[in-house]
Design goal:
It contains 16 helices and no strands. The termini are far apart. By secondary structure, the protein is mostly helical.
Length: 456
């Protein structure tokens, strides 16, 4: 009997060891995919924020003959390119694969930054920013999808939140590029720095695993099985693809009955949220200089703003799990509006630093909570459509925000810039609040788990 017990114990230990080995190898694959995606999104954030960090230098030097209203237009070109890239990403990824699309996006925005660095006119510079925006817009949702594939079981939301810290880390890096490189070498040097991710492209192409979901969906089962076997992870089940008519029905379903009111409220909230995010990201250093702060302090605000974004991404999911995503989104937008409005008041430097940090905490996760709210309220068959269209409509706000800031500054109304962005935050608070009140009963009875969805 003791011999039988010993054999059973050895068998149990062997099974635990096998499970641990599989978990370790699966963890290595997740770490590889998430790590490479994190670096790609870091470069995405650097390229996105570098324009706002360098803009005060360009305006002061009248580089390319640029004026404040043209500067706003140029900021909108990049966000318009992001709109195009984000809308095309799903279709292109379905055709060529997520890995190839990520490689193409990093290559595109790196080369486009080189075009900006060499540009001799506002038109060429604008073309470079537009092309960079296409690459930036295509990379982020693709990286999020890739990370979702390889995230450890039950850790998808946390892993996506960690991925998005890279975007804000890139914003911090852009401020230091402006501080350390632009002053001695000029504004073009900053865009040459943004060409450096080309060196990362071969690494991405060599080591990034293709999405297992894509391989299975394309019928490349042997390739998927070989990759899964190499790292001892489980193959995903083959998912049925929606026919065009099914996708159209999912979109129409957002407007059936009384749903159209709810859908428009979410779209309007997303419009105001992304207007605020990209308006502040583009104009924060310039507006702070117009308030009388030195350039060094103005760029430090960019660092603090993005540090706040990192903290916000890590705490938003926990707060939403406890208090509900709609409530957190509404409160966060109210706090963001208050913080942005306070930035129009010249306060002691330490107080301003604190306000900028807290504004970054709330602003960068308030928009995320809109997506979480839409996801929670939607049914499984139209959830992807609902979140995707809410994000897409919001990106029109991302185009409008930089343009609005430029028009206000060109008219000599820089003081109104922060006020206008604060009003956008209040409007999003109202829209998401009304939508939450209208759907609170259904949300309480749905029992759907809340998911952190980050698709700036």
């Amino acid at each position: 009997m003791s011999s039988s017990f010993a054999r059973s114990a050895r068998s149990a230990r062997s099974a635990r060891s096998a499970r641990s080995a599989r978990s370790a190898r699966g963890g290595k694959l997740a770490a590889l995919a998430v790590g490479l995606c994190w670096l790609a999104v870091l470069f995405d954030g650097l390229d996105m924020f570098v324009y706002g960090s360098v803009l005060p230098h360009m305006l002061a030097e009248k580089a390319l003959g640029i004026t404040p209203d043209q500067a706003g237009d140029l900021g909108s070109y990049a966000t318009f390119g992001m709109l195009v890239g984000a809308l095309a990403a799903g279709t292109v990824a379905d055709r060529i694969g997520r890995k190839k699309l990520m490689v193409a996006c990093v290559t595109l925005f790196s080369l486009a930054s080189g075009l900006c660095a060499m540009s001799g006119s506002v038109a060429v510079f604008g073309l470079g920013r537009t092309l960079a925006g296409v690459g930036l817009g295509g990379l982020l949702p693709t990286a999020i999808s890739m990370v979702s594939d390889y995230a450890p079981r039950g850790r998808a939301a946390l892993t996506i939140g960690m991925l998005m810290t890279a975007h804000h880390a890139g914003g911090i890096l852009s401020a230091y590029v402006a501080l350390w490189i632009v002053e001695p070498l000029g504004w073009r040097a900053a865009f040459w720095v943004c060409v450096a991710p080309l060196l990362f492209v071969p690494v991405l192409a060599r080591f990034m695993p293709e999405s297992l979901s894509f391989l299975v969906a394309k019928g490349r089962t042997e390739e998927a099985r070989e990759l899964a076997g190499r790292f001892e992870v489980q193959l995903p089940a083959a998912a049925g693809r929606k026919a065009p008519a099914d996708r159209w029905n999912s979109l129409v379903g957002l407007f059936r009955g009384g749903e159209w009111t709810q859908t428009l409220l979410y779209w309007l909230a997303s419009f105001g949220g992304l207007l605020l995010v990209y308006g502040v990201a583009t104009w924060l250093p310039t507006l702070m200089r117009s308030e009388g702060y030195e350039l060094g302090s103005a760029l430090t605000f960019v660092v603090l703003f993005n540090l706040g974004g990192i903290v916000g991404m890590l705490v938003a999911g926990r707060a939403a799990d406890r208090f509900g995503a709609p409530r957190i989104s509404s409160i966060w937008f109210a706090l963001t509006a208050a913080g942005v409005f306070l930035l129009s008041v010249h306060m002691p430097l330490a107080v301003t630093f604190t306000v900028v940090f807290l504004t970054g905490v709330f602003l960068n996760s308030a928009q995320t909570m809109i997506y979480a709210t839409v996801s929670i309220r939607s049914t499984p068959d139209n959830r992807a459509t609902a979140v995707g269209w809410t994000s897409g409509m919001g990106r029109f706000g991302a185009v409008f925000g930089p343009w609005l800031g430029g028009r206000l500054l060109a008219a000599g109304n820089g003081d109104w810039g922060f006020t206008a962005f604060a009003i956008a935050g209040l409007s999003s608070m109202v829209f998401i609040g009304i939508a939450a009140l209208r759907s609170s009963r259904q949300a309480q009875h749905s029992g759907t788990p809340q998911t952190l969805l980050t698709t700036h």
